[in-house]
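ok so for the tutorial part 2 we go from a plain amino acid sequence to predicted structure tokens. step 1 is just haveing the sequence, like this:
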Amino acid sequence: MKKYNGYELNYTADKFKRMATKEMMDINLLSDTSDAYKNLQEGDKKALKHLVAAAKILNNVALQQDNALNLKQKEALEKAASKNDEHAQWALKIFNSLNGVAGLNGIDRKPITIFKGLKTPAGKNFYPADLTVKEFHKILLQMFKNNEIEEIKKILSARTMVIRKGKKLKAIDYTEYFKDEFSDMANELEVAAHYCTDNLFKEFLSWQAQALLQNNQDMDMLADKHWAMLQDSPLEFTISRENYDDELTSTVLENDELNKLIKQHQIEVVAKDMLGARVGIVNKKGTELLLKFKDTMPKLSSLMPFADKYEQTIGNSKKANQNMVDVDIVSLTGDYAQCRGGITLAQNLPNNDKLAVKTGGGRRNVYHRQVRLGHDPKRTKKYLDTFLHPDFHKYYNLEADHIFVIGHENGHTLGPKSEYQNSPGICKSIIEENKADTVSISFMPEYVKHGIITEEQLKQVYTTWITRRLLLVAKPIFPTETYKIIDLIEFNALLKNKAIYFDDKKLLHINFDKVSTTAYKLLTKVIDIQLSKSPQKARQYIEENTTWTELNEYISKTKKKLGLKKYKNIVSYF
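step 2 — the prediction. this is what the tokens look like for a chain of 574 residues:
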């Protein structure tokens, strides 16, 4: 069997081929033949190409963050594929879909591993690959005894790669560890800033370039604040810094001895940021709808559970400090391109752990048009005929799913601030995403009252959300599959509260009157967990609400029989 840098491929060429053809769907990004691109001014067209170049550089950074061998194994596959090695050619397609040597696909229980014996640990490459949770905690406890508090703070921060130093651990800031890549990116951003036509966007790019060159959180803060101010720029560029991938850092909060010392020394524990880059062209028509939803946010903040017990993330202003844009996507790299069970539809950034938000900066939502527009009408009809009672078919509408996502992203800006959001430890992402989902559904009737959507659209949102998202194809894996875990929690709650039921033919019915009230019950529980700052309470909530029943198993098996697309292929034309 042929080896690639000493590793054999884990599947046959035929299996890889099936995965890359029958089990894969294309996500076609915006091309240079589109009207959106043609209508740009010449300066912005030039700037866009340099932004794409910066995004491609960042992809190599994310590959290194994910697994120490990602770059070497990708190069080995590319070299072999160029020499007509068919096995390597098909394996490379799956590597590019996962954007790494391994990853979940959202359906199979175990991660897909492209090479035999080459897995990705819980701490990714943020930490030494052989570092176990037990050893990690033991080393930190010893470092506390040695009074190495400042180094511990760096180790438990979001922006460091951690290496071994004898029997200790040492943290290296991203700007140092990825110095060469960040320098090349900064150069591309400076050139893009020279060409682009929007002055605020030009300023943001200059700040972002400087943030890549300096080990200084204040520079990140200033770049984030300038980015969050963007509303009318024709171009979009984002360096995403989200921390869902690191499953090791937050475990310290579940160790009673460590947690006590962390609180004593007032150390903020934040999982490592996986980096991604997004490039696009702002769609003005799509953005107009988003701004209508934005106007309701101060009102919604007053309706949040326990609203009088905490300061809202949104602040006390009568106007939401948040911008929103709909974007035609040109490039998705790094974290965005890790299509491991799904692909991002939208984002609300910066996250609450970021200094920009803590110091009063605004937030910004960006929606991905090309990702949400992908649709197979024949397959959808077959799916609806299988699971949804005919009376509800008329309410299934993909634009309604977009409305749900708008409510979800706005939901991240409502509720308690980061000190509460980070407190559930390893469960924090599940709890926060559950909050955003339930905010969206709880307050959907408010959008009807404000005339933003109609009663008909309200039913469409409920139907599409439940049918499209909550009927799972496999029991989710804790804690990795954040979104599928919350889907199961929400499905079980709706079933328990009779907001949904299945008839004797196992067809889904929806009691529209009970959907939002059920969501608000869950929202109340979630906010209570965040306010409690208890990882144990969060874990108990998840365990109690993720029961997998015979009904779930029926749905799972039936969906698999329909034929599923497990993998995504991002097609970029720039």
